[in-house]
Specification:
16 strands; Quinone Oxidoreductase, Chain A, domain 1; 30% helix; ADH-like_C; globular; mRNA 3'-UTR AU-rich region binding
């Protein structure tokens, strides 16, 4: 089986993504071959391509895709040929027309959910699920501050948090992104390009600050996030789109109000198959019941992945973006 793939020979900018034609072997024991119909674009892909998260080179890129099971390997019973499936996580390499995937990482797509929708929501939705349900259990009436509120994760978090009864405060850049965030569950939205985030958050919370802040931005927002927290608040750092935040000193957490700091990852929160299935089930339940809607802001041909990466890094995307093989 011949497949079209994008690979990286050495870390660098978007232009290091190069197309190749490869011969896929038959699926190994525990694997299936998936003909991919939609591929999710995530900032994790940028980290892998750029070398921020070092990988052995050359490497594939991409952690999320949906498609059709074409062939199953020995010992596979979780899925069957013809099933529509989606996966998120595992070894990079989703930027491909076909791929052999470990069956234990696959989830069957529910009826009523398209392949594109599944690929747009799986990784980002499970990220929101573990952040709001398990990393910190968001409570009714609680203030929650979420950076990058108009991004793929941010738009889902606004809706999910509102469903949990929280007062969601989003941070976004520019009027269009702020309006989009308000349409997706955020009761308050702060425009970081024209407003002082700390002042607005303190005004919204009556000077108390928030009990939890979710920050995927990293270096550029670290001090702001710390300043927005209430005493004994939790700083959840789950991304570094502007670079890594500075080292966290224990004494700083003490002096700023006995704060907590954590750096969680989806990999750990879905490491066991039962955790993966439970998280994905929760996401698709939210989707099929209409609790959350998924905003697909852009679709790119797989061959245009370099342009997609440039748009993502340049802040020109909103919501979820897809690559179409």
């Amino acid at each position: 089986m011949q497949a079209r793939v994008l690979r990286v020979a050495a870390p660098g900018g978007p232009d290091v993504l190069k197309p190749e034609s490869v011969i896929l072997p038959a699926p190994a024991p525990g694997e299936v071959r998936v003909r991919q119909t939609a591929i999710g674009l995530n900032y994790l892909d940028v980290y892998h391509r750029s070398g921020l998260y070092p990988l052995p080179m050359p490497t594939g890129v991409g952690s999320e895709a949906a498609g059709i099971v074409e062939e199953i390997g020995p010992g596979v019973s979780l899925v069957s040929a013809g099933d529509r499936v989606v996966y998120a996580g595992g070894p990079p390499g989703a930027y491909a027309s076909q791929r052999n995937v470990e069956a234990a990482r696959l989830v069957v797509i529910p009826d009523g959910v398209t392949d594109e929708l599944a690929a747009a929501v799986m990784l980002k939705g499970m990220t929101v699920e573990y952040l709001l349900n398990r990393c910190h259990a968001v409570k009714p009436g609680e203030f929650v501050l979420f950076h990058a509120a108009a991004g793929g994760v941010g738009l889902l978090a606004g809706q999910w948090g509102r469903r949990l009864g929280a007062t969601m405060i989003g941070v976004a850049g520019g009027g269009d992104k702020c309006r989009l965030a308000r349409e997706h569950g955020y009761e308050e939205v702060v425009d970081r390009t024209s407003e002082d985030v700390v002042e607005r958050v303190k005004a919204i919370t009556g000077g108390a600050g928030v009990p939890v802040v979710y920050d995927s931005v990293g270096k550029a927002t670290f001090d702001v996030s710390i300043a927005c927290l209430a005493p004994r608040g939790l700083f959840v750092s789950f991304g570094t789109t502007t670079g890594a935040p500075p080292p966290v000193e224990a004494s700083a957490l003490q002096k700023r109000g006995s704060l907590y700091f954590t750096r969680p990852t989806l990999v750990i929160y879905t490491a066991r198959r039962e955790e993966l299935v439970a998280s994905a089930t929760a996401v698709f339940d939210m989707v099929t019941r209409g609790v959350i809607t998924v905003h697909i802001g852009a679709r790119y041909a797989l061959a245009d992945a370099a342009r997609a990466h440039a748009d993502l890094e340049g802040g020109r995307t909103v919501g979820s973006s897809l690559l179409i093989p």
